[in-house]
């Protein structure tokens, strides 16, 4: 039976102090947590999006340690945890296609590994706790600079009780040509997972980071509230790919934001499946001239699900470009919402920006909404926005069936065509489970 350190339910100052002591953190981090807790206690919970009224913050376990030690060899991982991640394909993916991999179970990373050749080039891929001790100058310089605790209630909550998550640092001129991958798993009921990820690419470097998230069904609510901060310095590139497949009793309330400096590129590829409620709007702030931002996302909502997702891009500098493509599918009475922001500041001349939101309804009981905000404070720009809502076309289905396809095959082909712009961006060669996930989500809804 693996060792488990568990703090009782409830959010208190004593819990925050104990959590910081458990991690042997420096005083500045303890102070940061306590100030964040005070902010959370004052901040109102959002009421403008999905319904969060059933979420009980005093009935959540805020920290659960599933293993005494962090393993750097797969053989060292406890059997119970190993079986869970083997089912998700972690070891196979690592052996074949990854520069490094980390696996988080409940509140802590239980496994991490990175290929030696990237270590030799100065690339750092670790859990954030290790980085606080081994790279304090980098963490202290960048931590909470992109998403401060006062940004929103859930950023404050994460800042107070964060545990686990990834730290990635890529030195100048280094191009990590294989992806780094992290898996996050909530396994206990009424559990909160509050990982924090910080990625920094020095000038002229690049990295692709992939995360996958899952949880089994328990019948009682769990909370996932992560914070992700990306910092792409001059001429660097970060691609961040997420595939989240939470169970239908998880509230997925996440804050993700990137700063892109001169001629830097940031790309979010964001897939949202499962969960009871998701509220997530990846953001890119284009801070330097020539910076580029791209966000491609898909959200699938089924019975008793609300996927309130979207994207935000803020143009702060001249000659910056951005592109947002959002796809959503609602089925079995599920609800999707696109909530987006495109903002161009005064003086940001030569901006080129496009937003495209497409929604597909698979039945009459499902719902989709679009809440776009476009604020342009500069005249010399090229900005476009389009949105569409549709259903499966009976004429197209009939045509495909006349060519020998069964009705289910015809409907599946149309759905696959709808999401193709997203699927082709995924690292299919090593994440085969993503294909299975999309097929599973469509099963029963297209036949």
Helical residue percent band: 10-25%
Proportion in β-strands: 35-45%
Strand order of the largest sheet: 4-3-7-10-13-15-18-21-23-25
Low-confidence stretches: 1-5, 66-74, 94-98, 104-111
Write structural notes for this entry.
With 447 residues, the protein is of the alpha/beta class. It folds into two domains: 5-280, no CATH class; 393-447, no CATH class. Helix content is 24%, strand content 37%. The protein has eleven helices and 25 strands. It has helices spanning 13-22, 27-42, 79-88, 90-97, 116-120, 128-134, 136-142, 153-161, 394-402, 407-423, 432-442; strands at residues 5-6, 64-65, 100-105, 108-114, 124-127, 166-170, 180-185, 192-193, 196-201, 206-214, 222-224, 227-232, 237-246, 250-260, 265-274, 277-280, 283-286, 292-301, 306-309, 312-315, 321-330, 335-344, 352-361, 367-376, 382-391. The chain has a ten-stranded mixed β-sheet with strand order 4-3-7-10-13-15-18-21-23-25. It has a six-stranded parallel β-barrel with strand order 14-16-19-22-20-17. A hairpin with a 2-residue loop joins strand 3 (100-105) and strand 4. Helix 2 runs antiparallel to helix 8 (153-161) and helix 6 packs across helix 7 (136-142). The longest helix is centred in the C-terminal third of the chain and has 17 residues, at 407-423.
